[in-house]
Amino acid sequence: MRKALVVLALLVLVPALFVRSYSLPPAPDRRGGTTIQLTLPNRPLFGSPRADCVGAPEDDPVIACLIASVNRSRTEGVVLLSLPFSPTAYGLSERVALLGRDEAAGNAQLARIARFGW
């Protein structure tokens, strides 16, 4: 019985390591939404293009980083579920992006990114 529970736990928990969510805010040129996908665990659990681009150097064009982040997410993952935009998931992705970073520099980068509607 105990072995069966361990095997069942492994069957549930190991795939859960590869589940990620990715949120895009709505804008005039896109619907926005939160996508839950199965992908390699190379991103935070709650991700967004903004979270990927917060650490980019200031002289790099932000829009190129944002577009590359979205394309990478779409090509690397297998979509499990597409949901309407979730401000909660988007807020979590922003807070996760700033973990371990200089808050002033991170907020400045987020302000640069916000000018593009992201």
In short:
The protein is an alpha+beta fold and 118 residues long. It is built from five helices and four strands; from the N terminus they run αβββααβαα. Strands 3-1-2-4 form a four-stranded mixed beta sheet.
Q: What keyword list fits this structure?
A:
4 strands; 118 residues; four-stranded mixed beta sheet; 50% helix; alpha+beta
Descriptive account of the structure:
With 118 residues, the chain is of the alpha+beta class. The protein is built from five helices and four strands; from the N terminus they run αβββααβαα. It has helices at 2-16, 49-53, 62-76, 87-98, 103-114, and strands at residues 19-24, 33-38, 46-47, 78-83. Strands 3-1-2-4 form a four-stranded mixed sheet. A hairpin with an 8-residue loop joins strand 1 and strand 2. It is elongated and about 55 Å long. The N and C termini lie far apart (50 Å). The mean pLDDT is 81.
Topology (SSEs and partners):
Layout (H helix, E strand, L loop, with lengths): L1 H15 L2 E6 L8 E6 L7 E2 L1 H5 L8 H15 L1 E6 L3 H12 L4 H12 L4
Parallel strand pairs: 1-3
Antiparallel strand pairs: 1-2, 2-4
Determine the strand fraction and express it as a percent band: 15-25%
* Tally of DSSP helical segments: 5
Distance between the termini: 50 Å
Beta strand count: 4
Largest sheet strand order? 3-1-2-4
How confident overall, as mean pLDDT?
81
Largest sheet: 4 strands, mixed
Proportion in helices: 40-55%
- Please state the overall shape, judged from the principal axes of the Cα atoms: elongated
Low-confidence stretches: none
Class based on secondary structure composition and strand pairing: alpha+beta
- Strand/helix succession: HEEEHHEHH
The gyration radius over C-alpha positions equals 16 Å
